[in-house]
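Work Package 4 report. The design task specified in the project plan requires that, given a folded chain encoded as structure tokens, an amino acid be chosen for each position. We show below one input record used in the internal validation round.
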């Protein structure tokens, strides 16, 4: 990695400091987890340290916003990130996911005029695990 390029990159601590303004609870572990899930691929220095460029930080910000604001599982977020032209309007994937939840779950809300679900949905651990592509044990761990 050239020194000019290195000056434009952040190490993981600098990335956390930058992200904490909007996401005060973001951790080093969270960034490492997002990498292990294949959602972000930071460069590596010659000594193996993660180096985040502007695009990496923008991608992480988008992931964290979708989790926080849309309450989407990472599996759905990954689909959104893989779309050719990224958009935060999640119109294509989210309604299909929410329709799936609405069909399987017990709604405590109502459908709006356009047919989208408003309110909350109750699903079992088995149903949730199936919908988000995780094992039931993993869902149980996340519940704690």
């Amino acid at each position: 990695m050239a020194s000019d390029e290195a000056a434009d990159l952040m190490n993981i601590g600098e990335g956390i400091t930058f992200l904490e303004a909007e996401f005060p609870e973001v951790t080093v572990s969270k960034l490492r987890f997002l990498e292990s899930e294949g959602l972000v691929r930071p460069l590596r220095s010659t000594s193996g340290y993660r180096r985040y460029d502007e695009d990496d930080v923008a991608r992480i910000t988008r992931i964290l916003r979708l989790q926080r604001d849309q309450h989407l599982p990472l599996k759905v977020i990954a689909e959104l990130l893989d779309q050719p032209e990224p958009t935060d309007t999640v119109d294509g994937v989210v309604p299909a996911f929410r329709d799936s939840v609405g069909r399987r779950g017990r709604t405590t809300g109502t459908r709006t005029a356009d047919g989208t679900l408003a309110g909350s949905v109750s699903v079992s651990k088995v149903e949730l695990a199936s919908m988000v592509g995780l094992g039931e044990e993993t869902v149980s761990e996340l519940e704690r």
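The CA atoms of residues 100 and 131 lie 8 Å apart. Validation will be extended to a larger panel in the next phase.
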